[in-house]
Design brief:
By secondary structure, the protein is mostly beta strands. The protein has 1 helix and 8 strands; from the N terminus they run ββββαββββ. The strands form 3 sheets. A 4-stranded antiparallel beta sheet has the order 3-4-5-6. A two-stranded antiparallel sheet has the order 1-2. The radius of gyration is 14 Å and the shape is globular.
Length: 97
C-alpha cells in the first residue's frame, strides 16, 4: 500500500493565532511548496513546487506559482524557473524572473 503525502503552504498570524491554508499540493508528483516569499506589497506569496523532491528535476527548473496572501487559487507565473534566490529578484513593486 502506497501512502500519499500531500503538503501545503499556510500563513500563520502570530498576533492572533489564525492559520490560513494558502496552497495544497495536489499530489506527491506536484511536490511540496518550496522557496516561499511575499511579494513586496505582501498581497501575494510566490513559491515553487518540487515534484518528487528531485534535484535532477529541479536542475531543469521548477514551476513558479503565486497565491493571494489571503488565500485563493494559485496561478502559474512561469513554468520552469531555476531555484531561488539566483533567478528571481525583487525589483520595485514586483519581481524580475
Amino acid at each position: 500500500m502506497r501512502t500519499l503525502l500531500v503538503l501545503g503552504l499556510s500563513l500563520f498570524a502570530v498576533h492572533h493565532g489564525q492559520k490560513t491554508l494558502l496552497y495544497r499540493s495536489a499530489s506527491d508528483a506536484v511536490g511540496p511548496p518550496v522557496h516561499a516569499q511575499f511579494s513586496p506589497d505582501r498581497k501575494w506569496v510566490l513559491f515553487q513546487t518540487d515534484g518528487y523532491e528531485s534535484s535532477s528535476i529541479a536542475a531543469d527548473g521548477l514551476p513558479l506559482l503565486a497565491v493571494p496572501a489571503g488565500g485563493g487559487k494559485a496561478i502559474t507565473v512561469e513554468q520552469d524557473v531555476l531555484t531561488w534566490p539566483d533567478f528571481i529578484q525583487r525589483c520595485g513593486n514586483g519581481f524580475v524572473v
